[in-house]
Amino acid sequence: MSGPVSNTAASALALLERDGASSVCPLRWEGGFLYLLDQRRLPEEEIWLSYTNASEVAGAIRSMVVRGAPAIGIAAAFGLVLEAYALQEAESAAFDELWMQAAGLLQAARPTAVNLMWAVRRMVNVFSLNKDMDSMDLPELLEKEAIAIWNEDVAANLLMGRMGASLCPAKVNFLTHCNAGALATGGYGTALGVVRACKQMGKTVHVFADETRPWLQGVRLTAWELMKDGIPVTVIVDSAAATLMRQGRVNAVIVGADRIAANGDVANKIGTYSLAVLAKAHNIPFYVAAPISTIDYNMDSGVHIPIEERAASELVSYTSFRPDIHNPVFDVTPNELVTAIITERGVLVPPFSHTIKAVLPPLSVQ
Ligand code: MRU
Q1: Domain check: are 272 and 251 in the same one?
Q2: Any idea which residues carry the catalytic annotation?
Q3: Given 279, 288, 298, 312, which residue has the most CB atoms within 10 angstroms?
Q4: Has residue 238 been placed in a domain?
C-alpha cells in the first residue's frame, strides 16, 4: 500500500484527536487490513478483529461486530477495498464479476440503514468510472474513496455537533436511545457528537441513556463511551423514560437515525417512536442528528423503509424458554413528532419535505 493513501487515513483520526474530541473509534485501517472493535464484547473486553476480504466484513456487519448506520457504511467501503486488493491478480472479467458480487453481498448485510447502500454505491461509482484502469492501480483509487467516506463522516459529525449544541441551553439533560456515538460512526458520533460538543463548549451536560432492549446498546456502548470521555451518564430501563420526563428531568431527547425519508420520517432503533410520542406529550424537543448520507431521497415516506427483524434469541438470551417472539429492531417515527433534524448542512425544521429538498443530496444519488 502506498504512503500517501495511508496518510490520508490518519486524518480522520487527527480530526478526532484535535481538542480531545473523542477517545473512541470503532475501526482502524492499517497495513492493508481493516480492524474492527468487536462491539459484541464491549464493555467487558476491547478486542480488535482483523479483516481481509468483503465476505468477512459482510459477516461482521450482520453479526454486529460493527453496527450503527455510518459505521457499517464505512466498514463496507473498506470491505470493497480489501476485495479489490485480493482480486488484483485476477483477469479483468473475473475481477469485475467477483468485485460486483462482493458489493451486492455487503449491501445486503443489513436492510434498514441506508448509509450502507449509500457507501457501497459510492464505491461502485468509482469502480464503474475506472473499470478500464490497470487492476494493479484500481484498488488504490478505491482505498482513497473509502478513506474519504470515513473522513467526511467524521467532519460531518464535528459540524453537526457544533450546530446541535447551539440549540441547547447552558445546562442540559439529554435522553438518548441506542448508541449514536463514536462507536456507531467514523468517530465522535451524531447524537452523542452533539453531547460531546456541548461539553466542549463548556455547557453542563448529563445524559440519560435508555438501556435499549434487546441488544442493550445503551448500557453496553453509550454508557461505556461516554464514561471513557468523562461525560456524566445514567442508564435507565427504556420504560423509565416517561417518568423522567414527567419529573422534569429531561430537557431534550436526541437520537441518531438509520434512514430518513424525504418527508422527514425517521427510522431508528426500536423504541425511538415511543420516545418521540412521550417527548411531544411532555413538550420536550425531539432532535434527530444524522448526516445527509442517512437521508433516502428516493423514499417519499417512512412507511416504505425496510425494517430488519433479528433473531428471537436476542430477546430471550437470558433463558432457554422460547415463546413466540417478534423482534423488529427499528421503528419509524412520523415526521410530525420531530422538532429538528441536525445535519452537517444545517438544522432542518418542519415542513421537512421542503427543508430536506433544499439541502443537496449526497453526490452519489444526484
Ligand atoms: O442495530 P444497530 O445497533 O446498528 O442500530 C443503531 C441505531 O439505531 C443508531 O441509532 C443509528 O444507526 C444511528 S448511529 C449514528
Answers
A1: yes
A2: 258
A3: 288
A4: yes
